[in-house]
Amino acid sequence: MSTRSRLTVLAALGAALSLGGAAIAQPNLLTPQGRPDYDNPATWLCRPDLKDNRCKVDLDATVIAPSGAMSLEKFVPAKDPNIDCFFVYPTVSKDPGWQSDLVPDRMEWDDIRVQFARFSQVCRPFAPMYRQGTLTGLRAPAGGPQPVGEKPAPGVGGFNDVVDAWTWYMAHENNGRGVVLIGHSQGAAMIARLIAQEIDGKPVQKQLVSALVLGAPVMVPPGKDVGGTFKTVPVCHADNQLGCVISYSSFRDRVPPPANSRFGRSRGGLAVVCANPASLKGGTGAAQSYFMTQGYLNGSGGDAEKQWTRPVRPIKTPFVRTPGLISTECVSQGDFTYLSVHVNPNPKGHRTDELGGQILRATGIDPSWGLHILDVDLTMGDLNRIVAKQAAAYAAASRGR
Asked: Distance between CA 122 and CA 239 in Å, rounded?
């Protein structure tokens, strides 16, 4: 695939996941040219100098053993991490237009807490606001209210905001440090395009510790690690491998991707990547999951009410960790390759054997989305373990240069 074709595909993917939109941005957050002013701390959700740093939140978890026994796990952020993490969040905005403004609210704050803040135990976290395609626009074709306003002209917001935020970060904060790029869904499509356009094959690639492109496709020729979405960024096969990418979309083992699935489909002679964080070398692994104690990401419902113990017991922490509950394995079935999620029952214990997280419509479960809203939760502990090992490997490699 040529570079032009690769970037065209990534641009189309980003547009499909973001849906475009009518920008409604606060003037004091924009430059005279109408672009986000990333010098302004208000355009960031996480940045080390922020007084209102949304990565500095309560991340304590209740660890629930298969027996139902519970213990407290206190979250401890890193004091002086040697690498950075740069995060682009998924479709979470409920702003009324096709495209969000730059003013964060509970939707962006909650996503940072669920999908990104925990990485502050292994890296310095950076998360910009950007004018994204909204949930309002995403849900309109399924019967939701129509977004207000017109769609924006090409080049307004979206990916261009992400590039501007990255450019600002590299100029003002990076100082030659290694960096992990992380995104989910719409944000993952942005990260994939950013790597292809701004990093892949360029001098800055030597600073790429890894990329976590979750819930959006990374494509490769069948049996290869590079040559599709990226020219020279390979798939990760070991926890301490540097400069590689982890990508997957998750589905319940008993509800595999249907023919109309939004995720996991091979196309154009290319196969979609599945790298299992619980076992990058292949096979089945015991996933280290962190789930919200109550509710689901962006209020997307879920097909099972969360009751973590039998009988139900009060849990005071915002998160639960459930060792041994989930096993994951990359599976190829027809045109689809995906992260298959298995729940390990323990009928004699007092911990739940249920896992919700599938999108619920008025007509029932929508299997085309799989476990999209849990993509990150399912392997959060594994991803942090991997990034910690990559950070150590990067430090060792830097000393040897």
From this structure: 14
CB proximity list for 231: less than 8 A, separation 6 or greater:
3, 6, 196, 200, 201
Given a contact cutoff of 8 angstroms between Cβ atoms, the answer to whether 355 and 178 are in contact is: no
Mean local confidence (pLDDT), 20-36: 70
Q: What is the pLDDT of residue 19?
A: 41
Q: How far apart are CA 250 and CA 259, in angstroms?
A: 15
User: For 114-148, how does the pLDDT look when each residue is reduced to its tens digit (9 = 90+)?
Assistant: 999 999 999 999 999 999 998 888 888 877 888 99
Gap between the Cα atoms of 266 and 218, Å rounded: 10
Give the Cα separation of 48 and 44 in Å (integer): 10
Angstrom distance (rounded) from CA 228 to CA 268: 10
Distances (CA, A) of 317 to 96, 305, 308, 320, 385: 32, 17, 12, 7, 22
Q: State both tokens at 334.
A: 């027809």
396 in helix, strand or coil? Answer: helix
pTM equals 0.92
